[in-house]
């Protein structure tokens, strides 16, 4: 066949004992006696966990007729097979392929001393694979199995590029690598001790004091790692990585669980280390405002998640993000998405049509003498709306939600909530039914996704539920997996689906963007908005990704104060007023990209920054 197409068999799905080799029975070349689809028998190596079993299939890419045939893809009852025509432009051999009919990666990002290199692409596109190669954990095989290339051949493929020197360093074992893992929630499983012990063991640059100070870790230094919150773990992991004395730093997602202030601090620390100490940094990040801020250049990764991925040559950060959002890569001449992702450059008009779901009075809640106290302005929440909730961590956002559910009672009610709350049902105590998605989505039940979701809603599996929930949240392919086997992004999507599937007055989603890639954020955003519109539902979303808030929210509620001491919550405001208040608290302004209208953080003290602050226009300029 055309050497420009690949066959990928998902060995977690291929289950020949349950299908009787439908794929091979119908494969046209097989039917004429050729050996296109065979059992893996001879390539099976029981020492290789990813080689699958001897009865699973392998597909000869030499013989296969390609994507236009695709009969096996249709016949396989477990969606285990993908036949994909590679883009014509991709004439080189892969940098690495995990095995026969396995994922292949083309190209590599280029670490550069003194610079922060960004990597933007969907989950499953090979970003970690690229990093393992750059870290010397995987020796690239140029897609060859059986006659693996020597390092010389590999380096030859990159001769004349900036990667040549770097890869020679990897070959000679001269490159020290420090890595921040993607899933900080897993750190407590591998470290037994307190923050100080963990950080002191990593302080090779004698930089701990400053990192602890800038990342506000002082209060948790003596705390056991297992008791830290997600946001604290993220900052500890950042400090531990940046304290190392390495040539190449790799940071896989720096923003989950951090509020915007903390995200900006993390970005600045990474930038300073690159610039002041001449280190090479590579950052994978899906919060585009932060990626824009932290990176000096950007590689986009595209392809077909879990089948193949291509890392482009470096682009300017501005163009890279714009091309990504537009869905078209200029230099590569490649469409990566049918439509563009767009932002509203002007504040949306406030809607006046919505009915009121609940009107609540001004209230305060304190957790006892000298402990945290929250002051809430009176306000009302509408039906049909998505209410964005913004503000730092530890400022009382969850406390407010608990006041709405009646789980907590405001001060001065002596244990008896007799607030005069107006609602369409007449006067009643605050006892709204809330469906809640917590910030950290844990999964300890070894139960399948489909069993879990069908236990929540009778609508499970109906065409309506499939269109509104399962499809936009991309659940189809993971339905048969166990909750405990899911990646962070997959778990997030299941948790959003589970929350929206409940019957409630109010849906509260705490950081739905965590661990989702940009595509998934946009799809999840659409699912949530449509759900609110079609169900007369009210959704409150706490999120720190400004692009997610921009795409999601109709109005904003702004929390401000001093985290862990006192907080103040405004009434829900229309977007322009809400964004201005929120960003003024943070002292950050956004300008608009001239081509795409996408918001970009201004450099503090720049012309635009000063002008916008004078005008009081922090976001919609
Ligand atoms: P990303 O970091 O972009 O999410 P990864 O590099 O982790 O992507 O993975 C890309 C693809 O490679 C995934 O489909 C994954 O299943 C596959 N993969 C990862 N490791 C192996 C391996 N050792 N053998 C076979 N396939 C693998
Ligand atoms: P957010 O949701 O904005 O992160 P929270 O409402 O969870 O903030 O918490 C605000 C502050 O109140 C934090 O400092 C938290 O430690 C404190 N807090 C939360 N619950 C309690 C409680 N039951 N007793 C004492 N302090 C609490
Ligand atoms: Fe056979 Fe290839 Fe057609 Fe699949 S796509 S049935 S492997 S020829």
Automatic annotation (TrEMBL):
<dbReference type="GO" id="GO:0016887">
    <property type="term" value="F:ATP hydrolysis activity"/>
</dbReference>
<feature type="compositionally biased region" description="Basic and acidic residues">
    <location>
        <begin position="606"/>
        <end position="621"/>
    </location>
</feature>
<feature type="domain" description="4Fe-4S ferredoxin-type">
    <location>
        <begin position="55"/>
        <end position="86"/>
    </location>
</feature>
<dbReference type="InterPro" id="IPR027417">
    <property type="entry name" value="P-loop_NTPase"/>
</dbReference>
<keyword id="KW-0067">ATP-binding</keyword>
<dbReference type="Pfam" id="PF00005">
    <property type="entry name" value="ABC_tran"/>
</dbReference>
<keyword id="KW-0547">Nucleotide-binding</keyword>
<feature type="domain" description="ABC transporter">
    <location>
        <begin position="358"/>
        <end position="586"/>
    </location>
</feature>
<dbReference type="InterPro" id="IPR007209">
    <property type="entry name" value="RNaseL-inhib-like_metal-bd_dom"/>
</dbReference>
<dbReference type="InterPro" id="IPR034348">
    <property type="entry name" value="RLI_dom_1"/>
</dbReference>
<dbReference type="InterPro" id="IPR017871">
    <property type="entry name" value="ABC_transporter-like_CS"/>
</dbReference>
<feature type="domain" description="ABC transporter">
    <location>
        <begin position="81"/>
        <end position="330"/>
    </location>
</feature>
<dbReference type="InterPro" id="IPR017896">
    <property type="entry name" value="4Fe4S_Fe-S-bd"/>
</dbReference>
<dbReference type="Pfam" id="PF04068">
    <property type="entry name" value="Fer4_RLI"/>
</dbReference>
<dbReference type="InterPro" id="IPR013283">
    <property type="entry name" value="RLI1"/>
</dbReference>
<dbReference type="InterPro" id="IPR003593">
    <property type="entry name" value="AAA+_ATPase"/>
</dbReference>
<feature type="region of interest" description="Disordered">
    <location>
        <begin position="594"/>
        <end position="621"/>
    </location>
</feature>
<dbReference type="InterPro" id="IPR003439">
    <property type="entry name" value="ABC_transporter-like_ATP-bd"/>
</dbReference>
<dbReference type="GO" id="GO:0005524">
    <property type="term" value="F:ATP binding"/>
</dbReference>
<protein>
    <submittedName>
        <fullName>Ribosome biogenesis/translation initiation ATPase RLI</fullName>
    </submittedName>
</protein>
């Amino acid at each position: 066949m055309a050497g420009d197409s690949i066959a990928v068999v998902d060995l977690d799905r291929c289950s020949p004992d349950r299908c009787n080799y439908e794929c091979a029975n119908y494969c046209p070349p097989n039917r004429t006696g050729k050996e296109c689809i065979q059992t893996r028998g001879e390539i099976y190596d029981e020492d290789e966990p990813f080689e699958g079993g001897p009865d699973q299939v392998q597909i000869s890419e030499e013989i296969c007729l390609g994507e236009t045939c695709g009969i096996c893809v249709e016949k396989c009852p477990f969606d285990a097979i993908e036949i994909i025509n590679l883009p014509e432009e991709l004439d080189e051999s892969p940098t690495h392929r995990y095995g026969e009919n396995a994922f292949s990666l083309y190209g590599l990002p280029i670490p550069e001393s003194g610079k922060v290199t960004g990597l933007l692409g969907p989950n499953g596109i090979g970003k970690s694979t690229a990093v393992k190669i750059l870290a010397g954990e995987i020796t690239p095989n140029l897609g060859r199995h059986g006659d693996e290339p020597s390092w010389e051949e590999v380096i030859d493929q990159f001769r004349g590029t900036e990667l040549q020197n770097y890869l020679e360093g990897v070959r000679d074992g001269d490159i020290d690598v420090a890595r921040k893992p993607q899933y900080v929630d897993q750190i407590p499983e591998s470290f037994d001790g307190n923050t100080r012990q963990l950080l002191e063991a990593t302080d090779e640059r004698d930089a701990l004091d400053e990192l602890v100070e800038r990342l506000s870790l002082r209060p948790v230094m003596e705390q056991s790692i297992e008791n830290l919150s997600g946001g604290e773990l993220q900052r500890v992991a950042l400090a531990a990585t940046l304290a190392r004395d390495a040539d190449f730093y790799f940071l896989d997602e720096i923003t989950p669980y951090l509020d915007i202030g903390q995200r900006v601090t993390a970005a600045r620390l990474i930038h300073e280390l690159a610039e002041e100490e001449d280190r090479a940094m590579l950052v994978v990040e899906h919060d585009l405002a932060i990626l824009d801020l932290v990176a000096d250049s950007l590689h986009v990764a595209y392809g077909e998640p879990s089948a193949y991925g291509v890392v482009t040559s470096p682009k300017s950060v501005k163009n890279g993000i714009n091309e990504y959002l537009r869905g078209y890569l200029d230099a590569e001449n490649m469409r990566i998405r049918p439509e563009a992702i767009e932002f509203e450059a002007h504040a949306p008009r406030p809607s006046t049509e919505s009915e009121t779901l609940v009107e609540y009075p001004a209230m305060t809640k304190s957790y006892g003498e000298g402990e945290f106290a929250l002051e809430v302005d009176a306000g009302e929440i509408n039906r049909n709306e998505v209410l964005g909730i913004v503000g730092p961590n530890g400022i009382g956002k969850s406390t407010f939600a608990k006041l709405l559910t009646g789980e907590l009672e405001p001060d001065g009610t002596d244990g008896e909530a007799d607030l005069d709350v107006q609602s369409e049902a007449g006067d009643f105590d605050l006892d709204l039914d809330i469906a809640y998605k917590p910030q950290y989505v844990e999964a300890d039940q070894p139960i399948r996704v489909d069993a879990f979701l069908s236990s929540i809603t009778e609508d499970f599996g109906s065409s309506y539920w499939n269109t509104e929930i399962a499809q936009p949240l991309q659940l189809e392919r993971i339905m048969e997996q166990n909750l405990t086997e899911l990646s962070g992004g997959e778990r997030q999507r299941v948790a959003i689906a589970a929350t929206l599937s409940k019957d409630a007055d109010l849906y509260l989603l705490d950081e739905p963007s965590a661990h989702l890639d940009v595509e998934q954020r946009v799809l999840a955003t659409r699912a949530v908005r449509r759900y609110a519109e079609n169900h007369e539902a009210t959704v409150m979303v706490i999120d720190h990704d400004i692009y997610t808030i921009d795409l999601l929210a109709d109005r904003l509620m702004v929390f401000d104060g001093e985290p862990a001491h006192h907080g103040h919550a405004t009434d829900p405001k229309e977007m322009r007023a809400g964004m201005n208040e929120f960003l003024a608290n943070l002292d950050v302004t956004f300008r608009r990209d001239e081509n795409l209208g996408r918001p970009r953080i201004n450099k503090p003290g720049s012309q635009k920054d000063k002008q916008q602050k004078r005008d009081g226009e922090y976001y919609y300029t």
